[in-house]
Amino acid sequence: MSAASVRPSASKRVPEVESLESLVKMIQDCADSKCLAKSYLTADVVRKMSSVKSKYGCSLAHIIRNCALNPKSECPRVGDADCYKIFHEFLDIVIKTYHKIPSDDFMHPPPTFGDIENLPFGNLDPKGDSVVSTRVRVGRSIDGFPFSTIISKEDRLLLEKKLSVVLKELTGEFAGTYHSLTGLDEDTKDKLVQDHFLFGDSNKIFQDAGGYRDWPVGRGIFYNKDKTFLCWIGEEDHLRVISMQEGGDLAATYARLIRGLKAIESRVQFCHSDKYGYLNCCPSNLGTSMRASVHARVPKLSADKTKLDDICKQHGLEARGAYGEHTESVGGVYDLSNERRLGLTELEAAIEMAEGVKKILELEATL
Question: 57, CA 20 to 30 Å: which among 106, 121, 309, 312?
Answer without folding.
Answer: 106
